[in-house]
Amino acid sequence: MTDVAVVGVGLHPFGRHGDKQALLMGAEAARAALADAGAQWSQVQTAYVGSHEVSNPDAIVGWLGLTGIPVRGVFNGCATGGTSLQMAAEAIRHGEADVAMAIGMDKHPRGAFAADPSVLGLPSWYGQTGMFLTTHFFGTKATRYLHDHGVSAEALAKIAAKNLRNGSITPHAWRRKPLTPEQILAAPVVNHPLTQYMYCSPDEGAAAVVLCRADLASKFTSTPVYLRSSVLRSRRAGAFDVNSPSMPLDGAPSPTVDASKAAFEEAGLGPDEIRVAQLQDTDAGSELIHMAENGFCKDGEQEQWIAEGATEITGKLPVNTDGGLIANGEPIGASGLRQVYEIVLQLQGRAGDRQVAGDPKTGYTHLYGSPGASAVSIFSR
């Protein structure tokens, strides 16, 4: 199988950008990634562009250049970024292209994420009565997990505080004001046990990645980062409700468990060999649950990990070193590629004040998207 390297990454900062179009943000992120790779758009032979809000993301070629290459639109919930990365890598592995790009952008309205239940074949009342409100879903899921595994709400506050603290030293982060765990616990409750600052918020932004055949990487950069594995898995049981897909149901694991195991097997690595990770933190409870689902610890061990600072930038497994979704917000199509942007900077030693010490050589990204898809990618120097 052809090896794939990441040779350039680019980011349009996440936040609120007035009337600026999502497509333009995506084009700026793509140009930044190309500049990072020392490449031209004319060298790109295929691209996968992810967005929730933009129905024709292939229109990005209007800003990048009408070169006639295949450009495919991608949407897979919050797993969109990982899906577009995987598809771009597969295009290289299967000989469709020597150089490919994954691009993501979105421009979400203010307020909690909601979704159209009819997309999933559910009755309209399901959403109208609040059953599909994401804050409700994640709050109830966290309540059950904390109860089942003896984890405290203080652990959630410490996760949120860590991510906001990391965001405060990340120049492109949206939320850059650190808060203490006590302040976070004292904030208004949105859905118990999650308070206002334990959630991410929808926002706007874009990110992009340039990939190529590994044997061509030296033409673009002296510090390539290799994509060791990129895996997508969907749920095996359950409808979209509080019991599924992020909780085991009828013996079926979360899709994150399946994706993580497959990614580690493909990469030939184990969880203890990962030096820095980006885990989906739509809320603090999600990051806590995903620590176990991705195999880094056992259910219930998170409290001790957090108390010991294991997931801090100085810890044994720094998690969400750029503040994750809690500090950056989530434009769905772009958030997974923002994770890749951060991991590549970390592995290349370019992360500035948030740089993980000890010359990290392996990195991990994880996404979870409703109603039950998970994407995991593993990188190495």
Number of strands: 11
Q: What's the average pLDDT?
A: 91
CATH second-level architecture: 3-Layer(aba) Sandwich
CATH class: Alpha Beta
Helix tally equals 12
Q: Can you say what the CATH homologous superfamily is? A: Thiolase/Chalcone synthase
CATH fold type: Peroxisomal Thiolase, Chain A, domain 1
Question: What is the spatial order of strands in the main beta sheet?
Answer: 3-2-4-7-1-8-11-10-9
Task: Please tell me the total number of domains.
Answer: 1
Helical residue percent band: 25-40%
Low-confidence runs (pLDDT<50, min 5 residues)?
A: 240-246
N-to-C span: 18 Å
Q: What structural class results from the helix and strand content?
A: alpha/beta
Largest sheet: 9 strands, mixed
Task: Compute the CA-based radius of gyration.
Answer: 19 Å
In terms of DSSP E residues, the strand content is 15-25%
Order of secondary-structure elements? EHEHEHEHHHHEEEEHEHHHHEE
Question: What general outline do the C-alpha atoms trace?
Answer: globular
Task: Based on the model shown, name its key terms.
single chain; 381 residues; alpha/beta; Peroxisomal Thiolase, Chain A, domain 1; 9-stranded mixed sheet; 12 helices; 11 strands; 33% helix; 19% strand; acyltransferase activity, transferring groups other than amino-acyl groups; Thiolase family protein
Kindly describe this structure.
With 381 residues, the protein is an alpha/beta fold. The chain has a single domain (4-109, 200-380), classed as Peroxisomal Thiolase, Chain A, domain 1, CATH 3.40.47.10. The protein has helices at residues 22-37, 61-64, 80-93, 124-128, 134-149, 153-168, 181-186, 255-267, 284-293, 302-307, 324-328, 332-347, and strands at residues 4-15, 46-50, 71-74, 99-107, 189-191, 194-195, 204-213, 225-234, 276-278, 362-369, 373-380. It has a nine-stranded mixed sheet with strand order 3-2-4-7-1-8-11-10-9. A hairpin with a 2-residue loop joins strand 5 (189-191) and strand 6 (194-195). Helix 6 (153-168) crosses helix 9. The longest helix is centred in the N-terminal third of the chain and has 16 residues, at 22-37. The chain is globular. The two termini are 18 Å apart. The model is unreliable at 240-246 (pLDDT under 50).
